[in-house]
């Protein structure tokens, strides 16, 4: 990053921020779509039933915890590869837990 000029660094930062915003919006959209599809099934009322509210709450919690855990595992795998683990271990450890 030090080899970039000031204007190139600003442009790089702008591109990075736009990508992070896009990724966050995609994450949110996937979360909403998934939990809606799984939990909302009574369209006779504009209000959520207690069952639907509970389902949505659990769905959101599980979705976020799963995403966090996957992020941790990817970071662990990346660190292992950077420390000489090589590409052979790239998928190891994702199943069986």
From TrEMBL:
Location of the protein in the cell: Mitochondrion inner membrane
Tim10-like domain location: 14-76
GO biological process terms, semicolon-separated: protein transport
GO CC entries: mitochondrial inner membrane
Family: Belongs to the small Tim family.
Name under which the protein is recorded: Mitochondrial import inner membrane translocase subunit
InterPro entries from the UniProt entry: Mito_inner_translocase_sub, Tim10-like, Tim10-like_dom_sf
Alphabetic keyword roster: Chaperone, Disulfide bond, Membrane, Metal-binding, Mitochondrion, Mitochondrion inner membrane, Protein transport, Translocation, Transport, Zinc
Pfam families per the UniProt record, alphabetical: zf-Tim10_DDP
Any one Gene Ontology molecular-function term assigned to this protein's record: metal ion binding
Primary residence: mitochondrion
């Amino acid at each position: 990053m030090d080899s970039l000029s000031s204007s190139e660094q600003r442009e790089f930062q702008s591109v990075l921020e736009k990508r992070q915003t896009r990724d966050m919006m995609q994450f949110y959209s996937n979360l909403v779509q998934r939990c809606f599809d799984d939990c909302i099934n009574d369209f006779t009322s504009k209000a959520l039933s207690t069952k639907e509210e509970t389902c949505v709450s659990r769905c959101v919690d599980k979705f976020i915890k799963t995403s966090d855990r996957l992020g941790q595992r990817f970071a662990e795998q990346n660190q292992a590869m950077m420390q000489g683990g090589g590409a052979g271990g790239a998928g190891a450890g994702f199943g069986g837990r």
